[in-house]
Write a structure and sequence with these properties.
By secondary structure, this protein is an all-alpha fold. Helix content is 62%, strand content 0%. It contains 5 helices and no strands. The longest helix is centred in the first third of the chain and has 75 residues. The protein starts with a helix and ends with a helix. 3% of the residues are buried. One of its GO terms (biological process) is DNA-templated transcription termination. InterPro entries: Rho-like_N. This is Rho termination factor-like N-terminal domain-containing protein.
Length: 175
């Protein structure tokens, strides 16, 4: 390729110009290296801070986990005490089987306008179904049952319902 006027202006023609260009290049390289070192130190200190924060969070998590386990053990002990008190307060006699004979239901005469002398549509209606039994305080939750199943290495415990988990845990305890 032939040189043009513009090419000769961009390239240093004398050794003095070459040396000045090299000095400028060295200064620019030194500045760049210094910037890289500063950036590296900033990352290093930032990493130290992040590791320190991570350690602090890890310690806090461990403390909270220990506190939670202690509270869970305390709750289990209290639940066991309540169950013992309930068991001690109920009579030890055997109740007759209810499968053969149905329980008597209290007979209520139908309430009407003729028997009461007032309109029952404006008063509160009574529920014909008895109230549902309250769940016992000692019944384990689904989460507790899954934890127990995991500890006893029951296969497929995460897909089981609460009733199935109870049955699987009973079977695992017997085996």
């Amino acid at each position: 390729m032939a040189r043009t006027k513009n090419d000769s202006k961009n390239t240093p023609s004398t050794s003095v110009e070459k040396k000045t260009a090299q000095k400028k290049a060295k200064k620019a390289l030194a500045k760049a290296e210094k910037s890289v070192r500063v950036a590296h130190e900033a990352v290093k200190s930032s990493s130290k801070k992040l590791r320190k924060e991570a350690r602090a969070l890890s310690e806090k998590t461990e403390k909270l986990t220990a506190k939670h386990e202690k509270a869970a053990r305390k709750l289990a002990i209290e639940s066991a005490k309540v169950a013992k008190v309930k068991a001690a307060s109920t009579p030890a006699q055997k109740l007759p089987s209810t499968a053969a004979t149905p329980l008597p239901t209290p007979a209520r005469p139908p309430v009407s306008l003729a028997t009461t002398g007032r309109d029952t549509s404006s008063t509160k209606k009574r529920s014909l179904t008895p109230p549902l039994p309250k769940p016992s305080a000692v019944a384990p939750t689904l989460i507790e049952l899954r934890r127990q199943a995991k500890e006893q290495q029951v296969r497929g415990y995460s897909r089981l319902s609460k009733a199935d988990l109870i049955a699987a845990l009973d079977a695992a305890r017997r085996a």
